[in-house]
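Predict the assembly for these four chains.
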Amino acid sequence: MMRPKILLVEDDASLVELISYNLEKEGFDVIRTDDGEEALVLAQEDKPDLVILDWMIANLSGIEVCRRLRRAPATANLPIVMLTARAEEADRIRGLETGADDYVTKPFSPRELVARVRAVLRRLRPALSGGNLDYAGISMDTSAHKVTRDGVTVSLGPTEFRLLRHFLEHPGRVFSREQLLDAVWGRDVYVEQRTVDVHIRRLRKAVNATDNDKELPDVIRTVRSAGYALDAAPVPV
Amino acid sequence: MMRPKILLVEDDASLVELISYNLEKEGFDVIRTDDGEEALVLAQEDKPDLVILDWMIANLSGIEVCRRLRRAPATANLPIVMLTARAEEADRIRGLETGADDYVTKPFSPRELVARVRAVLRRLRPALSGGNLDYAGISMDTSAHKVTRDGVTVSLGPTEFRLLRHFLEHPGRVFSREQLLDAVWGRDVYVEQRTVDVHIRRLRKAVNATDNDKELPDVIRTVRSAGYALDAAPVPV
DNA sequence: GGCCACCGTCACATAATTGTAATAAAACCG
DNA sequence: CGGTTTTATTACAATTATGTGACGGTGGCC
């Protein structure tokens, strides 16, 4: 199971130490910065699984960073935990409404922060915490690397597995070939976009197959000129 | 576009009032109970979109309710916000680790509670709080690339989809063919203005069609010598 | 080395969508 | 009403996107 990657945006050096230490001890990788602009760049390029964001940081306020992260398509769904000394209600609400997923006020205990990070991730990226993913009759045990459909075991190659996992983490949502290459293959790999088609084909074949010669309804929806999505109710022709 | 349904499990009658009032004012439907066993039944049967769960309630402790909700497949993914007087760290962590999505300690402000409820729902049910466009019975989920009219799925080609999205982003407003070409096709594409008519026709056909041979009222208004607009109430004769 | 599973790419088949032109129908105007 | 302008509708051929099978390559493993 992969170690989730956390981007920590905080300018108090001693806090950075404290938080990093606790996160790493609990199985997270931590990237650090104390600069708002740099945080945006890191969020784009390193694709962390979650951001811990202090309100008071250099160059851009935390809340502004939050807003920009939400606005950029690539990071619009990145989980954000705001971290701040501001305990006033209005600020907390403002933080949450800007798109933060949780909000922790200083002083806080490192253990509670870790617990909240876990709670957010468990929700948004169940695969990271070794949970099971279920959708449309498909069940994936991410830690055992096993997949079933309607109880029947499905066998997948490594790439098909990661592809399906990505779909299961965001059921119903359409992903372009480019997005899929980023998320499933990795950002620095160069492969043809059409390669995605081939793996979609392989995934479909595996997931829709039965032991006899019949086929189950297709769970992957092709969205012409947009990409593919995992879908419970495929469009009838 | 349904009002999200909240199950409120709380035994302090005045708090129930306070919370219900605020939630309903903010567009939620609220189901209430003060009993742990009953909460489990209601969660199963009424299928709420989120549960607000007090720690101290009759019959079963809140945390036990939480555990059982998580264990039952039907409610394993139901978002839970814990609500409690216990501010001790160990308790908060226990709450989060049991599977709560958020944890609010008394005393709290109703507005903050509502903001947290929204933050959790925004994550889990994007359809309920954003990312999709609604107008005149038409609902478009932009991230899933799905369109429904009065709940019935509408299937559109790529261009019709973009065209409808543009109309939904500016409901009621009239656009000339030139403006539509700019916005939907792109500034640097050369196509005949009349092409817009054809796509309007295709969009109308798809959106107004029913499964039988009847037709729904037209949602697109032709404005002679000006262009087209999406309109809720076409002029009756 | 030989076997096997998997991968990425290509070439071709198939299917969906597109823009245009031709024609019919409406709306407008004196 | 006749003439004119604007929009609706239909059919079609070109274009584009996706589906699919095959192939060569790579690396693990015995």
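The interface with chain A takes residues 79, 89, 92-93, 96-97, 99-102, 109, 111-112, 115-116, 118-119, 122-124, 141, 143-146, 153, 155, 157-158 of chain B (CB under 8 Å). Residues 157-159, 191-192, 194-195, 198-199, 202, 224-225 of chain B lie near DNA strand C (CB under 10 Å from a C1').
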